[in-house]
Specification:
mainly alpha
Length: about 90
Amino acid sequence: MAKPVLSDPIALRLPVDVLADIETIAAVSERTRSWVMVRAMRYYLATEGKDILEIERAREGMRQGKFQYMDTLLDELDASNKDDAA
């Protein structure tokens, strides 16, 4: 398996209790602190972070004019339903 491309090192200050938990998990799982922290960040990015990123992408689309007014969408849906009923 190829090694992932890594960024330059970054400094991160953590609450002491959080670091203690990270160190315990790392020791018990025989992993590094970095491994535990990256895994935790990936989990965050896959859940709450994903929602934030999707909202920002939608906002960017709005800024670029990539949107549809709700009234237009509802009119199109109504027209589609009328066509299906015929």
